[in-house]
Specification:
The chain is mainly α. 73% of the residues lie in helices and 0% in strands.
C-alpha cells in the first residue's frame, strides 16, 4: 500500500469511528483484489483476441460477447459490392 494512502488512513478521525474501520477494510480489500481482477480481465481479453484471430470466436472482446454482438469481416470486394 502506498505511504500516502497509509498516512490518510491513519488519521485520528478515521481511526476513532466505525466508518473509518469500514473504509480501511474496503480499501484493503480493493487493493488486494484489484490486481487479480485486472489480470483475469486482461487474460480473457488475450484469449478472445487469439480465438478471433483463429476464427474460433465471433468477437474480439469479452464485453462484445456479453452484449451478444458479432463482428463481421468485410473484404474490399464486399465494400465495392455494397456501394455499387
Amino acid at each position: 500500500m502506498p505511504a500516502a494512502c497509509l498516512i490518510a488512513l491513519s488519521s485520528p478521525l478515521l481511526q476513532s469511528s466505525w466508518a473509518g474501520y469500514a473504509r480501511r477494510l474496503l480499501v484493503r480489500a480493493f487493493v488486494t483484489a484489484y490486481p487479480w481482477c485486472h489480470a483475469a480481465m486482461e487474460s480473457s481479453t488475450l484469449a478472445y483476441h487469439i480465438a478471433y484471430l483463429l476464427r474460433v470466436a465471433p468477437t474480439h472482446r469479452p464485453t462484445l460477447h456479453a452484449l451478444r454482438m458479432q463482428v463481421s469481416r468485410v473484404s474490399a470486394q464486399d465494400m465495392v459490392r455494397r456501394r455499387g
